[in-house]
Amino acid sequence: MTLDEAKQYLIQAWGTLGSSWGVSRTMAQVHALLLVAPSAMSTEDIMEALQISRGNVNMNVRDLMDWGIVKKVLKPGERKEFFEADKDIWKVAIQITKERKKRELEPILRVLEEISTIEADITDPEVKQFAETVENLKKFANNADSTLNNFIRAEESWFWAGILKLIK
Amino acid sequence: MTLDEAKQYLIQAWGTLGSSWGVSRTMAQVHALLLVAPSAMSTEDIMEALQISRGNVNMNVRDLMDWGIVKKVLKPGERKEFFEADKDIWKVAIQITKERKKRELEPILRVLEEISTIEADITDPEVKQFAETVENLKKFANNADSTLNNFIRAEESWFWAGILKLIK
DNA sequence: TTGAACTTTCAAAATTAATTGAAAATATTT
DNA sequence: AAATATTTTCAATTAATTTTGAAAGTTCAA
User: Alpha carbon of A47 to those of A36, A53, A56: distances in Å?
Assistant: First the structure.
């Protein structure tokens, strides 16, 4: 396998993985491409590498920047914008975790909280069973939430520990 | 909020959550419906509750059974099949974790492994950088894999502990 | 201010995924 | 074996998402 074949293969696989994770195939491919790129790439570079349109590159790169895992870089003397992916996969994981937590877990927690306010006859067994199910979902969601918070906190303190050591 | 409104609301929210997790909206809704149902439901019950076609119910219920979070139950004297969701949300979480691990993490691990076999000039800095990126991805994926295995193992042993206590 | 280089937007087109519903298959009862 | 009840399949349709590309917008050097 040559270098280019290997890159191609990884980009492909990353795209497939992405699409089962609520990330569009193309967005995941752009990310993978930037991840294995030896240096920052311009819109045109990406267009050519993945054979997709300018608009498509623009939108996906912007989404990746919204997720905080791709950055715009300006090369001195160049007018074009270049993009690079954070090469530290742990930072990427933290970012994605934070974003998904915010976008998905937190909304469902709010819904569960709101549902808990249901005023109904607790002696009705159907109401009781429903209340229990919701209670369980809440416990579960809260547990997931703190697990994720721990993960984020652990990774971040590890990150800062590294920084502190450098500047000491 | 009445009981029915609360159920409706939860089903809706669960469907939205599902669609950002690579699960189709309808499949997540069927799951939520069964989760809050006071008893097992027939295909027709589900059709009516969610206003979807027979074929659609059939496919989604079958998928949920493939995921191992919904079971077929036969009521004595009834010809129809009924379905119920596992009410233990932890078991659901384990099942989903297992399945997603198998369907998503393991394939990407295989790809990364295969890519590692790339035969190329290690002195070429581009090759070296790529090899490092792949190495990092591998470390990350392996770490995720063992984290998930731990989660599954912890939950399962907890589950068996409960069973053992019962039969002792 | 102009125009060239580059980026962004967005309506339309293409693609992909989900859904329907009726027909075929299967199972059950008489 | 025939009639009946129920489930499954799948081609056609519908819906949702993604992509395109050309036009509009922006930036900046001259």
Answer: 16, 6, 8
* Set of chain A residues whose Cβ sits within 8 Å of the Cβ of B103: 20
Asked if the C-beta of A78 comes within 8 angstroms of chain B's C-beta atoms, the answer is no
Distance CA A152, CA A102 (A): 13
CA–CA separation, A134 and A117 (whole Å): 11
> CB under 8 Å to B144, separation ≥6 — which residues?
B105
Measure the CA–CA gap between A25 and B80, rounded to whole angstroms: 41
DSSP count for chain A of H helices, then E strands: 7, 3
| Among candidate residues A85, A101, A136, the one where a domain is terminated | A85
Tens of pLDDT along A19-42?
Answer: 888 889 999 999 999 999 999 999
If asked whether residues B70 and B20 sit together in one domain, one would say yes
State the amino acid at position B15 in one-letter form: G
Contacting residues of B for A6, CB less than 8 Å apart: 115, 118, 130, 134
Which tokens in the block code for residue B163? 């069973």
Nearest to B74 by CA among B32, B33, B42: B42
Which domain covers residue A105, as residue numbers?
A: 89-167
C1' of D11 to CA of A8 (Å)? 36
B155, containing H or E segment: helix B125-167
Residue B125, CB half-sphere, CA atoms under 13 Å: how many? 2
Q: Which of B85, B100, B132 is the last residue of a domain?
A: B85
Q: Is the minimum distance from the CB of B59 to strand D below 7 Å? A: yes
Rounded distance in angstroms from the CA atom of residue B127 to the C1' atom of nucleotide C5: 33
Please report residues of A whose CB lies closer than 8 A to that of B114: 1, 9
d(CA B118, CA A1): 5
pLDDT digits (tens, 9 = 90+) for A73-130: 999 999 999 999 999 998 999 998 998 899 889 999 999 999 998 777 889 999 999 9
Cα gap B95→A168, rounded to integer Å:
47
